[in-house]
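Hey all, quick one. A colleague (J.T.) asked me to put the pyridoxal-5'-phosphate job into the tracker so the inputs and the structure tokens live in one place instead of scattered across chat threads. No bug as far as I know, just bookkeeping. Sequence used:
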Amino acid sequence: MRPYSRVYAAIDLDAVVSNMKEMKENLPPSTAMIGVVKTDGYGHGAVPVARAIDPYVEGYAVATIDEAIILRRHGIKKMILILGVTHESRYGELLRYDIRPAIFQYEKAKALSDLAVKNGKTAFIHLAVDTGMGRIGMKPDKASADMAERMSRLPGLRIEGMFTHFARADEADKAAYEAQYQAYLRFLGYLEERGVAIPIRHCSNSAGIIESLGSNSLDMVRAGISIYGLYPSDEVDREAVKLRPAMALKSVITYIKDMEPGCPISYGGTYVTEKPMRVATIPVGYGDGYLRSLSGKASVLIRGKRARILGRVCMDQFMVDVTDIPEACEDDEVTLIGRDGDDEITVEELAALGGGFHYEMVCNLGKRVPRVYVRGGQIVGTKDYFHDVYEGFGYM
Ligand SMILES: *Cc1c(COP(=O)(O)O)cnc(C)c1O
């Protein structure tokens, strides 16, 4: 039975759990994991993923305070860290929802401390250190260590953790990673000299976890893309951690027709039939996040066989060649991402064909595509973004 008649993304929560177990096995036994569920769990749905991985993580990381609040509102109790910068206007919500911000400026720490004292609360923060990403964070020098020491004496504020982010841990050459990690360790030393203790030290991302980097021996690691069963890059060791892709994208054939030779297909007539052909229409397009740059390049799976895209991908539909799949008929299942029979189409394959990036493809899967959650072969829940409620217009 198909849960939706046009298209849906099936999210395999068993794969998600299996990926967590695989990573755990590749880590030192005392190292805990933070589950990164930013951008709505890399497009997979943050809440169901967070719930599925809860037994395997010490906490969660997101990019924005709104993502953090969504997790809290759905019953997530463990530590939540915001990896980006949180605006001061939202510090009240940090305290109310018990969410950790990344802090690296004294004035911000002071503002949060003042608010915490005023509310009779304690704010927990993680220091962000920029060791070579050039994005956010304090410089790992002695002046920053002095600043961190002053922060550590602020009332109502507790430095709970400190992290840096590796720009090139997914590359075969680990020199850049090593330089960043050494800068982090040196900075930890400066803090120690000043009597500033850091209970939770965390640096590794998915690439670090898979590549068994030295930074895995700190207190925690931050698993992101690997939760969802994708490898950070082609250069990491796929044998070290066996990941299973969690997302499949399924649709149907809405129409099949026979075409004479010489018929143009789709916008611009970039493809013209060369012989008598059987052509199927699929009701998915770039409006669903299926890349237009896959026009004429990618294939889909129908009855376990590959059918290539003919002409341009439209906003809501595209056409494929089913001449060599005579058994194909209207209403047949179509696999855009995932397995059908012995063949599989991966996100990595599509990203490479379309000149895109695999992280981006899953993050940008459209809100017109409902997510269907599967566990033990059963559908355990769904999320339909398109039916989200509008507020303030009086529509309902
Ligand atoms: C996104 C992000 C991660 C996770 O990265 P992956 O490559 O998906 O594992 C970890 N840490 C920070 C700071 C991030 O921004």
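Adding what we noticed when we looked at it: The pocket of pyridoxal-5'-phosphate is lined by residues 36, 38, 83, 165, 205-206, 222-225, 232 (CB under 6 Å). The first strand starts at residue 7 and ends at 12.
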